[in-house]
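F.,

This is the one I mentioned.
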């Protein structure tokens, strides 16, 4: 995709909403980043064991998954989407402010569950809105969005200070790890600082609401921005039937539960379902690999046969996420010229080959660092490229965004638990074996997706799903 004048004009026309949707992913990354570096502080603050404090991870990830599923509920109107984004980004600042006051691990888990719901809504809604605005040109904008969430890399239990931002804040406020009495660690100030740092994000969303004249007290402003629904309709033939137009807007990007209703499947070719499932499975594996690799590479390195010094092994998660961030930055200009399908092909093949080489040179500490960097590069752009490719196959009329975001979230949560259990039972070597298997499955599912793409009806075909006139879906929705 070239950066032609048409795309540049579209970007300029939607500059404010685009920047806003990118900015909310700063909240997403910020919230998911802090838990790992402050784990020891939170353990001391709640005076809980390590096994109990890890349930905070589960509550956040599980509710993030629920939020991703429910995020599609707010897609029907631009007002609903923006209000949900405003509430979610503001909730993250509130969570940061409340965390230092949580002296019970159950209370902390509940607070983090709220944060997870907010993060899930941000993930689904922002992706859907960017896809709605740019459609076939959305790949590069999704790459920038992913870049905004690069702080995500420190969610796992890693040595304190892996996140550069939190490392600086820890240095600024100092450490305090008492284990008796009412504990208020000095890292509490770091959380309050993060709450203030995040505040510009909900303010930006509120300003977009104001410009859209969606704030009741301030509805006499300038002409509202072009909504994403209107923008999508701009490229389609005019419809005389308002009810038909409404059905066109609502037939795609539904929430996960609406997608599963049988009335939405009538007349759909089997390839319609297969594309959704295959795309979700690829991201289930790729995001699962990101979670399990960043979560256990440190533990794998310090065990035999490598026995890397703990201080040196602590650089591996940072190296992994550093190259993910670098890869996302590189992917922005690359996605101008390269199709999403080609980028995903390079990613899944590169991941599989890297794991095979890591297995072959499993006794080499040097190659472990090289392989970690390569994995970060290959995994960096998989999610946005896969989302853009799948939506393009379905002609932006399916439930791809919600299904893919949900699949990625499930993979990141499930594969970490699975690999942790296997390593506990089989030893550290199984870490690379699991990664190779997951990489092979990602490649296999992507091959299936390519096959189903060839089987999916072309836009000019009469079998294209959903129906071009929206009549069948409209009748279903009116029941």
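My design for it:
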């Amino acid at each position: 995709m070239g950066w032609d004048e048409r795309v540049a004009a579209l970007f300029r026309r939607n500059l404010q909403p685009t920047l806003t949707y990118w900015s909310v992913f700063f909240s997403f990354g910020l919230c998911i980043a802090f838990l790992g570096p402050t784990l020891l502080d939170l353990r001391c603050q709640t005076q809980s064991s390590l096994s109990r404090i890890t349930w905070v991870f589960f509550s956040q990830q599980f509710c993030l998954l629920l939020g991703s599923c429910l995020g599609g509920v707010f897609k029907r109107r631009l007002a609903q989407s923006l209000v949900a984004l405003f509430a979610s980004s503001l909730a993250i600042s509130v969570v940061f402010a409340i965390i230092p006051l949580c002296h019970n691990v159950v209370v902390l888990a509940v607070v983090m569950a709220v944060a997870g719901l907010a993060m899930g809504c941000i993930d689904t809604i922002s992706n859907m809105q960017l896809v709605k605005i740019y459609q076939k040109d959305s790949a590069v904008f999704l790459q920038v969005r992913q870049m905004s969430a690069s702080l995500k890399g420190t969610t796992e239990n890693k040595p304190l200070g892996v996140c550069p931002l939190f490392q600086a804040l820890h240095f600024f406020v100092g450490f305090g790890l008492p284990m008796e009495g009412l504990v208020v660690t000095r890292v509490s100030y770091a959380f309050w600082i993060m709450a203030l740092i995040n505040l510009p994000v909900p303010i930006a969303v509120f300003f977009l609401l104001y410009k859209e004249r969606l704030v009741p007290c301030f509805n006499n402003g300038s002409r509202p921005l072009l909504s994403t629904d209107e923008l999508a309709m701009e490229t389609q033939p005019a419809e005389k039937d308002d009810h038909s137009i409404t059905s066109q807007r609502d037939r795609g990007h539904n929430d996960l539960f609406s997608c599963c209703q049988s009335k939405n499947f009538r007349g759909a070719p089997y390839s319609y379902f297969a594309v959704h499932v295959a795309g979700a499975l690829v991201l289930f594996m790729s995001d699962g690999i990101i979670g399990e690799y960043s979560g256990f590479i440190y533990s794998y390195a310090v065990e035999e046969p490598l026995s890397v010094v703990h201080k040196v092994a602590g650089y591996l998660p940072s190296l992994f996420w550093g190259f993910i961030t670098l890869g996302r930055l590189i992917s922005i200009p690359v996605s101008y010229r390269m199709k999403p399908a080609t980028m995903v092909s390079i990613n899944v093949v590169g991941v599989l080959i890297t794991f095979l080489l890591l297995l072959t040179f499993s006794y080499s500490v040097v190659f472990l660092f090289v392989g970690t960097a390569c994995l970060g590069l290959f995994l960096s752009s998989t999610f946005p490229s896969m989302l853009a490719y799948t939506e393009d196959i379905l002609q932006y009329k399916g439930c791809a965004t919600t299904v893919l975001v949900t699949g990625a979230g499930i993979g990141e949560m499930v594969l970490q638990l699975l690999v942790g259990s296997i390593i506990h039972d089989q030893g550290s070597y199984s870490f690379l074996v699991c990664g190779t298997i997951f990489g092979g499955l990602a490649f296999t599912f992507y091959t299936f997706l390519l096959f189903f793409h060839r089987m999916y009806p072309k836009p000019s075909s009469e079998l294209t799903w959903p129906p071009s006139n929206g009549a069948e879906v409209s009748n279903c929705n009116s029941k």
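The longest helix spans residues 270-302.

Talk soon.
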